[in-house]
Structures
1.
Amino acid sequence: MTLLAATAALALAATGTLTATGARAATSEDQAAATLLKGAKFAKAKESLKGDYDRIIQDIITLTEIEAPPFKEDARGAAYMAMLKAEGLSDVERDEVGNVMGLRKGTGGGPLIVVTAHLDTVFPGGTNVKVRREGDKLYAPGIGDDTSSLPVLLAFIRAMNRAGYTTKADILFMGNVGEEGPGDLRGSRYLFQKGKYKDAIKYFISFEPGEAGRVTNAGTGSRRYKVTFKGPGGHSFGAFGLVNPAYAMANAMVDFATIQAPAQPKTTYNVGILEGGTSVNSIPFATAMTIDMRSNGKAELAAEEKQFLAMLQPAVDKENAARSTANGKITYDAQLIGDRPVGNTPESAHIVEVATAVVRQSGLEPRLGAGSTDSNIPMSLGIEAVTLGSGFETFRAHSLDEGLTMNPPQDLANMATGLATVLTLAEAR
Amino acid sequence: MTLLAATAALALAATGTLTATGARAATSEDQAAATLLKGAKFAKAKESLKGDYDRIIQDIITLTEIEAPPFKEDARGAAYMAMLKAEGLSDVERDEVGNVMGLRKGTGGGPLIVVTAHLDTVFPGGTNVKVRREGDKLYAPGIGDDTSSLPVLLAFIRAMNRAGYTTKADILFMGNVGEEGPGDLRGSRYLFQKGKYKDAIKYFISFEPGEAGRVTNAGTGSRRYKVTFKGPGGHSFGAFGLVNPAYAMANAMVDFATIQAPAQPKTTYNVGILEGGTSVNSIPFATAMTIDMRSNGKAELAAEEKQFLAMLQPAVDKENAARSTANGKITYDAQLIGDRPVGNTPESAHIVEVATAVVRQSGLEPRLGAGSTDSNIPMSLGIEAVTLGSGFETFRAHSLDEGLTMNPPQDLANMATGLATVLTLAEAR
């Protein structure tokens, strides 16, 4: 996931938009969840998870040490596909963009549920991904987000098999590509736009690291741009008086900073990276800034983007009017570098009712929230989707100090909750 | 030299400040120059230069292929010191900062004249400095500026020796370090502030590539800063609303761009390099800009610098007032990264009179101008100094495509003019 999900949950809590379900009437989903959680088969499934704990850790280490940079997930994808196959799934395959998947067939007549975790990490090729253990902690870039979720899905399959569960639904277990920033949800996008199952998928659950109480049912949308300002350049002294793209960009930033973004639905903007110029004594030929705009509201994101794009030409015009354009004018180019659709699965949707019911029946308080994950794609298409925590407590995601804490009782309780959600949704018997 | 010198000459021409000497009464310097140029010894000296042409080219190639990045001129310095020694100079030595030099003693009672070219190039270590020949052109980073001047000084010494010249003055031939940008005139600064000859030097000539008509008698001063803006950072969505150093920097740039710099003496400013931020979806912890301010007037440069520095705190304050400082305020740090003093050798100074007289008596029209070279240091101290062209026509200085054109008749005529200036100033017999 992007850093967003976890941080967004905090932010939502702070701004009071977190939906606490509080006292409420029991739903049919509550009853189904309660029945499942109390069943003898579920006790066996939990035993399976417990017995698998060390194996899960070993698989996390194995997969973490196969680097998976954005757009280069193939080696890890091949390894994970072999693991899916080893669990006895059918129709195991790799699709055109690199998603790997296999089916656990249902008894028939049920929906198709996708249960996925993403293969890619944010780290470039060549990053040292050797796992280091210190006490109850494992460290390596990418070990938490989202590598730690992949083996949990394998453990789910084994638990279902050992407990003797059948499901009405077909479940497509998957390791998908392209979730992180530059991947721009490429794997999930392909799945729903071109993949062979695209018209069959009714429910979508993506697992990201973290505990089980969080149910991400809103997809924060984002539009990201790299805006490049170009000019004739020149020597700082000899060509003084010519237009400078740095000033045009500064004009744009100053204007951008005045945008009043709505608090509800939460809408934000940011200048993230600045670059440009070649030497202190040259007027830059080009400068650039990367812009991140996000919102939980589709109309609000579109409005902010429109306002931003409309500011660029006046910022450039102002600089072209302020200095000489004898050697050329300042121009700009706004390149879209990220596009994550806004989406939402209503609280009343079956998948959200199931997920929150399982959390409640497990004795926890569900927390709904917004994130920016693979679920954004189905959410934006009106397909029911949630992002859930796969179990491990992780830290420093996206940093070289990334790690996870091994706390078996808590980790296993989280995993059991995730598994119960899948089973309840799949109408397991 | 910095790119400045050549460009400044053009700029000065364009703004009409070029001093054309026009019709004028012959000076004692004209007479001395004319006498020297007509002498039989000077004919021998020119023969020596001509016979040395291929050797000069070979020495240029040899020295170019010994890389000399800023602060890492030692290898080339050692090679050049050996060459100075081979020409029979006395007191050959390397000073504390890396300048290498040797004396050609005079007959006594005369002044001490420094004749130098700089050892350093702008190119970092590891740049491919292998010289490539195409027709009448030689290509390699640094081959022109200022490597092409170093062997010309050696040829001057040989020409003086072969022609049998004695001089009243002592001449200190030198290869100095630290002329280019980051070196910040370190070699020249040391020579005049701490070097063993510091109180004895009466005249200073630095040779840079180019033809002989240009006499740089004004030193454009510069003050350069890297200004870093720091803040608490944060996630673009989760921490939206916190102060962003990019906006503070944009405020400063917009203000900076409004400064009205005096046209006379020419005064300029520039934002040259922008940097900052780590990812599109993070509020930057830090952003930075490098600033170049230059002037041919000392008071004007000081005034511009003062105005610039006074803009920084209000720019920061504006951002701290516009957004939340709950996690920390924006602060700034302005680090001085370049300091070249403004200087000037009056047109009436003996060294300028000699240099322009030699040019005129050689049938050319002298062009006075401003530059930013090693001469800035003595000029700022009131010591007579000029920067002259050593002979070769060079192109694309400071770029990887840097090169020089071999045009023996023209190159040799330029060299002869430079040598005649040194000889006239040294009162050669």
2.
Amino acid sequence: MKSMREVLLYKLTWPEIREYLKENDIVLFPTGSTEQHGKHIAEDNDAFTALEISKRVAEKTGVLVAPVMPFGYSPHHMGFPGTITLSFDTLVNVYKEVCKSLMKHGFKKIVIMNGHGGNTNAIAEALRELKEETGMTVYSLMVFPTSTGFAAEVVKETIKTGGGHADEMETSVGLYLGQRILFERAEKGVPPESLSNFHRKYIRRVSRAVDFHEITVSGSLGDPTLASKEKGEKLVEAVVDEITEFIEELKKQ
Amino acid sequence: MKSMREVLLYKLTWPEIREYLKENDIVLFPTGSTEQHGKHIAEDNDAFTALEISKRVAEKTGVLVAPVMPFGYSPHHMGFPGTITLSFDTLVNVYKEVCKSLMKHGFKKIVIMNGHGGNTNAIAEALRELKEETGMTVYSLMVFPTSTGFAAEVVKETIKTGGGHADEMETSVGLYLGQRILFERAEKGVPPESLSNFHRKYIRRVSRAVDFHEITVSGSLGDPTLASKEKGEKLVEAVVDEITEFIEELKKQ
Amino acid sequence: MKSMREVLLYKLTWPEIREYLKENDIVLFPTGSTEQHGKHIAEDNDAFTALEISKRVAEKTGVLVAPVMPFGYSPHHMGFPGTITLSFDTLVNVYKEVCKSLMKHGFKKIVIMNGHGGNTNAIAEALRELKEETGMTVYSLMVFPTSTGFAAEVVKETIKTGGGHADEMETSVGLYLGQRILFERAEKGVPPESLSNFHRKYIRRVSRAVDFHEITVSGSLGDPTLASKEKGEKLVEAVVDEITEFIEELKKQ
Amino acid sequence: MKSMREVLLYKLTWPEIREYLKENDIVLFPTGSTEQHGKHIAEDNDAFTALEISKRVAEKTGVLVAPVMPFGYSPHHMGFPGTITLSFDTLVNVYKEVCKSLMKHGFKKIVIMNGHGGNTNAIAEALRELKEETGMTVYSLMVFPTSTGFAAEVVKETIKTGGGHADEMETSVGLYLGQRILFERAEKGVPPESLSNFHRKYIRRVSRAVDFHEITVSGSLGDPTLASKEKGEKLVEAVVDEITEFIEELKKQ
Amino acid sequence: MKSMREVLLYKLTWPEIREYLKENDIVLFPTGSTEQHGKHIAEDNDAFTALEISKRVAEKTGVLVAPVMPFGYSPHHMGFPGTITLSFDTLVNVYKEVCKSLMKHGFKKIVIMNGHGGNTNAIAEALRELKEETGMTVYSLMVFPTSTGFAAEVVKETIKTGGGHADEMETSVGLYLGQRILFERAEKGVPPESLSNFHRKYIRRVSRAVDFHEITVSGSLGDPTLASKEKGEKLVEAVVDEITEFIEELKKQ
Amino acid sequence: MKSMREVLLYKLTWPEIREYLKENDIVLFPTGSTEQHGKHIAEDNDAFTALEISKRVAEKTGVLVAPVMPFGYSPHHMGFPGTITLSFDTLVNVYKEVCKSLMKHGFKKIVIMNGHGGNTNAIAEALRELKEETGMTVYSLMVFPTSTGFAAEVVKETIKTGGGHADEMETSVGLYLGQRILFERAEKGVPPESLSNFHRKYIRRVSRAVDFHEITVSGSLGDPTLASKEKGEKLVEAVVDEITEFIEELKKQ
């Protein structure tokens, strides 16, 4: 296992990176956002988590970590102070241009370590365009545990309430990773009275552009008050182990 | 119930549309694609189905149907002859400009009736940008039955194999709607030998830009040979009924 | 002569298109618009006509027909309900991307079958950019008879009044092709009283962006009341014959 | 009549322009191109003529002339050395941004004095977008005499051969305006042997992106050897007089 | 003086930011790059320094610090491994969209704390466009000491050799701020033999797009071996004090 | 030395340019702006000077001069009547497309002869993108004498007051070159009373988008009343000689 400093690409000098590239071609690119995370979690949580998980995986696998992109696609959170959003096009271009820069130096396997669900479509479009334009396959994965992704088993075991934003799972992970969390201010996510029954009924079958302040008063979905550091530990360890396994297999490709 | 001709916006004259707008403000905008649909279904199936379902809903609800957009986002099908794809940006702009044109005339409730999963991200982006730029909410729904969308119950009852493209469900719907289907040529979707175990294993947890010719020899996913017109009838009737109910409730909003 | 179904590219499966491409390389791409056509013609008339003429030519020549693009460049008709317009840039991109998709599969001779004069500049720009970017020549022609284009002789013999929109010629063609026309509501195009003598005088010598509601009350130019199905038959047959001859010669190039 | 210097907006100081705007709101904006003009005319002829005609009209009417835009849309002339072309989008933006700058200072009636047929579509698009975005009508006219535009009568009387580029008319105008013309090198425009009969036949009925070196060896169309300074004098005087009349009427609008 | 955590906007929750905005409207936005910094300095130095200086100023003034933008405009460093560059347009858009997001929440005085000279033109363009589009003035300053900017006096006193990249000044600042520096590997910047005398001679009078690998072998300009932590301390303290004074005056505007 | 006419590329015919290209590959591309130049200088001064200096250099060196681009980047002068500005993106594209057109014909060494400081960033971006896209180096220089560029020595000897716009130096140059100058109206540049001490103090250390009408009443910076034709002669002769020397050396590269 390498020391922390050595896995951060941006803490190396160019001759050190040149050395790395002689025998390796993998790099992790963490991406997050700066947006409201309920009344209790710091706004950088998606970027923070993407970087923290990337570091842990990198320490176990010896691959490098690029700088975390702190801004993402968050127009739906703009109703809460502090949220910063890029446009879809700008974000796709940032992803593409960072990847193309890395490719130019010889990185052949780039894994986007994403901490924000709202970035998913922009990443998908970047991956498609990169493939068309360069012929190269870039990978992307969600660093948070989910019931259909990494650490799915542990999620099912430990997490009682869903949600998807500043919820039980996300708060638990943050407590374990040392994020700044004002846990006593955590509030269950409840929709404002203005949310119509009509929209409630069709929430999964009909799409529309939904702003978070239309569906939650606190900014949370789900129930973050059920979170704990212990749950977070199990989740993080599982995610890190499973992504580590993926990276090890990717090395052999 | 109105006759077919009257529900098609584009078969009306401008004074007739002006009349409609005096008391109504809903319009359905069907969107599809032109892309390979296995060895047995005509390439316009997503556009065809979007239009057919829209017509049926329109006849029951009396709302108008805009022209179907025949081209969608299909770069992943370009490995098969006949597929036509627009770029992501162009498609988002088409959706936005059609909706803005309709809004200018007084249509306040636009429902995009989508027949192609590959269009989903482009529609989502169009809906978001339309909301930011015009303040208006545009709705979108998938016209095909799915296990999480409209007609979910009937899907679970009638459809044995999943897939997601030119599969048992889609073929059944097409058989019932009168699409041109060479049923005897339908083939179960099997991946080419070149698909690695690595990619198989991480298919749900790691994203990459996948081309269909990399994962299916026939162009189908799932098993279309299990399709039948009877299954199609149940599915279509359920979808039409449930969307009709949605439109009736939308009228009251 | 082939049956109707076989000439529509989008009603074929991908193996059928692959077969076609082994011995052929021509495809017709019909383009129209959705816009007001006076008080008597359905709004899809340009798209409808482009498709109908394309089908007839295709049946005679055996070439394939791509899906009709139903939306065009119609900002000048937005004063009348129901008109839908794309921006110039979006439309150029649609034309280019459809043609590039077709080229990728091996279509070497694409003929844009245009039914809307307002699309002309966008098509010209698409043709130029396609030539610069791909080295390939794409052809475009107007499907309506005109005094300087196809069926010029028949136009001079049969049509008494000019106009250029929802006029005697266009109405005659529609009557013959089976378009939905409320003939009893047809009105001669007359300018609103607000049109100044100044603009009248310089109409051919000085260009400006003119909106149709500034120059015609009914939406028609010319005199559609002089139209007849018989005139339409002569015009359509002549246009189809002459374009067919062009396609036959194009085959030999 | 004012002296030459005073009519050129760009030869005035800002306080002088401020004075002009207190009682006037018209400005002429000449646009041309830099492109081959046969073996005998200098490459700036479209820009040169646009400026010369604008000056003469300005002297008679007292309106101001903006700087001439020397570059236009000339991809079809790139086969001949010296031709410079902008892209369509860039040119539309130049026209729009110059007009918007002028509007900001209070010019309400802008007349684009165009000397290059290849700019026509870009100007049309600029005029349309300016109207949509600012609500203001910008005018455009062709400074060369044509059989359907200004000085049509004189064209019919004096000019024997058509063409449209570096031809009898254009050479005559240039001889009178003092352009640098190597008249002894003028050559009748003849197509290279490679031009197929197929393309010859359909030249007016089927559009394609045509490069000038595909259709003329010398770069000229028509027969410039028939030109004379006397013809040029009649043409220029007529064009100037008729445009002057237009400007005088525009003042009253 | 506030504690470190409180000055980082992204380590606050949205209710805390809402509180801040009730009485304050200033935010610092640090921007840097990820690019080669000679053989001895970590590649994130411009981002690192921008953030470090911002934090120190923020602690003294109580204003908030937005997340640092880690990627900048660095095409001229792409010849050295590890450099990441965005395109000019993408970077301008990132700056504009971050500022517009902050404005939407009520931040009225944004100060871009820039650590990379290569970003200067993109920032200038963003500032101009933000002023045109929002009417608001955004400020920008260079966080490194320079002989014409902040800490000019101390630069003149302490720094013997110029350069402008990974040089004596930059290395000194990094040594004091705790950057990862492999000081023993620092090398004086010398141009490769391929640099022509022609280009040497006109370096200040004629502009061209210069790549760093064309003008320096080590990646440094100037002489970083003369750097010391003591020099860095003087420089950093002066820069922080002077920027602090600026922020205090800005508060009163 | 060649005669004037022969050095202007746009006054040649295409066969003449073809001849030139057989033995030469240098072209000067003058760029300026149309913008206020104080109360005394004509608004085209930057374009005028760029062209005049280019002609003089061309006559001495025998290289060709492309048409001058009369519009530049001048949003900061829009507060004064007559100023015309392009957007940054449009201007970059104009520069790139003109250069690419010239390259296509065989010009290998293009020198942008710039007369407007506000164009500098757009030119720098064009030069960078041209290098990335074509691999070719384009040069750019400022045609006005400056204390750090061409004619630096003469500037230091002859010019007493700085400024940077419509100042002592620029007015002197214009007087010598025969520009239209109303010298008796020249006024020293003084800021309006509204300029705050805050902004005065930080003018060199903090950037913001400054409009000229915020910092000067007359439009001038510096003191144009100290200008003279004699000073202009010395400055112009020195600039022309030094640029000529550069071009002669460039020929040998």
